[in-house]
Specification:
The protein is of the alpha+beta class and 106 residues long. The protein has helices spanning 2-10, 26-31, 43-52, 59-71; strands at 34-37, 79-82, 92-94, 98-100. Strands 1-2-3-4 form a four-stranded antiparallel sheet. It contains four helices and four strands, in the order ααβααβββ.
């Protein structure tokens, strides 16, 4: 937990991988700057992610963007969410390269 709050002061980056959002402490989740979301069969876990990122996207837009990202890169794609982008238009990406916009903004 301490590293999650001190990383920016100590000039440290770290990656945490997990399969269940509720297993990651709220302290770590609140300090996360990026989320990389791979395909999940669990609708409940996707809803949990959407709730965690509340205010960013409506649930239907979030699910649609996940599907677009996952269908790219021969099925190995992921949705990247940057919670502190340099430009607001860069919040969402399919993998690291393709910028995505929610359908309502297109």
């Amino acid at each position: 937990g301490r590293m999650a709050t001190r990383y920016r002061h100590d000039h440290v980056n770290f990656v945490l991988s997990g399969q269940k959002l509720s297993e990651v402490s709220a302290l770590v989740r609140n300090n996360a700057t990026h989320y990389l979301i791979w395909q999940s069969e669990s609708g409940r876990e996707l809803d949990s992610l959407c709730d965690e990122l509340r205010g960013l996207l409506p649930r239907s837009s979030f699910r649609e963007m996940c599907q677009r990202a996952w269908s790219s890169n021969s099925g190995y794609g992921f949705l990247m969410i940057d919670r502190k982008p340099k430009l607001p238009s860069l919040n969402y990406r399919s993998s690291f390269n393709e910028v995505l916009s929610p359908v309502s903004e297109m």
